[in-house]
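Dear support,

Our group has been running a series of protein-ligand predictions, and this particular one with magnesium ion is the one our PI (initials K.S.) wants archived with full inputs and outputs. We had some confusion internally about which version of the output was final, so please treat the block below as the authoritative record. The input we submitted was:
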Amino acid sequence: MMSAPKPSSQLVAEVLQGQARSLSRLISRAEAGEVECRPALAEVYRHTGRAHVIGITGVPGSGKSTLVRGLALAARKSERKVGVIAIDPSSPYSGGAILGDRIRMNELNSDPGIFIRSMATRGALGGLARASLDAVDLMDAAGFDIVLLETVGVGQDEVDVVQATHTTVVVSAPGLGDDVQAIKAGILEIADIHVVSKCDRSDANKTITDLKMMLGLGLREGSAWRPPVVPTSGETGLGIEALLTTIDEHRAHLQQSGEIVKRRRQTAEMRMLKTAEDILRRRFVGRRDGVAAELLEQVIARDIDPYAAALRLLAALHEGEAK
Ligand SMILES: Nc1nc2c(ncn2[C@@H]2O[C@H](COP(=O)(O)OP(=O)(O)O)[C@@H](O)[C@H]2O)c(=O)[nH]1
Ligand SMILES: [Mg+2]
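Confirmed final output from the archive:
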């Protein structure tokens, strides 16, 4: 006979003790958007704020997963516990890459000081930011010192998520076209640290030069932190320790300059609004024959305008909450 699933409230205590199995289960429930686990996640949230959260972003194939693996191993040398969240792109063309990631990541799974979790963007709608940052909270509360969040630098949701971290690392690689790819993807400005990966390749120097030139053109005014360019190689191990040191320096900068306060505020605001969006979408989709469907017909028939319908939808959601 199958035993009933443990209530989420019971899993929280185990997560706070750092139990990987319970952590994994609560992440799954959070990812699925199960309402049952919300009070548990509220409790978890009170125990967060200790981990340093690092976003790793860049176009597909730029070497993010390889870098994450290297960083995780480097951080373990200083006894720090490392959580990894890899947000898989849902586009079918990257299916092969996802499999590759999993295999390489699995090598790390034998170390209890490393916890790895893949998350699909598929079907997440506005829920990706909510789900992945819930997972960050859970890892933080479970005692992971560093949380690495790998996400492809395309799509507003992905950019939002990576900006909700303390330190954003943007990865560029040689051999992926002539331009600095990060510019095309619009993620150059969000970098706290630039990495040029695959520096074992002879064409990496050009990528470094091009990137530095672009950065020189668009100097961030009034900021004490100038995003450095760190060359790395997953093949030779070049620059991985240096990158970890730079990440630690950025963390110290955030604390000393007080910028950490601003970042916390930005992240809290983004999470609150994204989650509100997520709730709205979920209820809207869930109410095909309800108030949303009725309003939709009225908007199509031009009985009311979309704005008025939106206000009524919000009011209806509010009434639903009170019940
Ligand atoms: N030569 C070289 N190849 C690399 C390096 N890092 C990653 N790659 C290769 O680049 C491809 C994409 O790497 P991956 O880490 O999966 O990139 P992601 O899609 O950004 O996560 C793989 O074929 C890797 O083997 C590196 O430092 N040097
Ligand atoms: Mg990857």
